[in-house]
Design a protein that fits this description.
Layout: E1 25-27, E2 45-47, E3 69-75, E4 81-87
């Protein structure tokens, strides 16, 4: 197994991200671990910051699971919590 890649300069030792040091874009990496390129050989890039426009007043989160949704949480040996959400598709997948 190859060694883990070096930690990027924008990731702090505790695993948090310093967004001021993070690039605006990063190369898209495929399932094979290689940089994805378009038909002309240009590296495809992804934006690192999501721009979300606020529309209307914020809404309070819904209490409990929604219809067709199952939630569970677990804590690993190092105290990290993971939430798993299983959702049934509300529309059939496109073919």
């Amino acid at each position: 197994m190859p060694p883990a890649p070096p930690t990027p300069e924008w990731v702090n030792p505790d695993g948090t991200v310093d967004e001021s040091k993070m690039p605006e874009e990063l190369p898209l990496i495929g399932a094979d671990g290689k940089v994805v390129k378009d038909a002309d050989g240009k590296t495809l890039m992804v934006e690192t910051r999501v721009k979300i426009a606020q529309s209307g007043a914020p809404q309070a989160p819904l209490a409990g699971p929604r219809a067709g949704e199952k939630r569970s949480t677990s804590t690993d040996a190092e105290g990290r919590k993971t939430e798993t959400v299983e959702v049934e598709a509300s529309v059939p997948p496109a073919h």
